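**Archive record**
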Amino acid sequence: MTIVLQTDRLTLRRFADDDAGDLLRMESDPEMLRYVGRGPLADADAYRQHIRAKFLPYYDRPGGHGPWAIIETASGEIIGGCSLKPGPDARDAAAMGFGPDDVEIGYGLRTASWGRGYATELARALARKAFAELHALALVASVSAANAASIRVLEKAGLERVGGPISLPGDEHPSFKYALSKQRFDAQVLARAKGA
């Protein structure tokens, strides 16, 4: 098990073939994928193939980007997935205006873990990782305009909305681009240090 990041309550690690069943159970809940623009895969074998084709290749690439399993440290259970990807790797990179020096943040938690502050804790930790380890010039995200909870999480992590709504092919609701520049992140860190 390769641990990528730890917070007070969460551990991020690389995905493995054995995670296929957990992903199927989580994503079979329609609420988890409500704003993602896709449905669950057919079965555990389809998730296993997805892990092998889409997740594992990131771990062989330089740069430290990737998709990771979110583990609730206290229970040891997988409660979601997250990622930091190069901007151009994003599903709708061109439409969202993500550039080569951007790092896209993504996350999803099982519904049983909502409302506990995990997403905010995670987003803040991923922001620190993006700037300190991945040398991002900006952290970016695409979020459905209808997903008020995820918008709040991004804003608590310091990201701000850039521009107006963007209609993406196949999505029911328009999306917003959110971003946090390295300069703004550094200023926020300095302000918190002075306030401490």
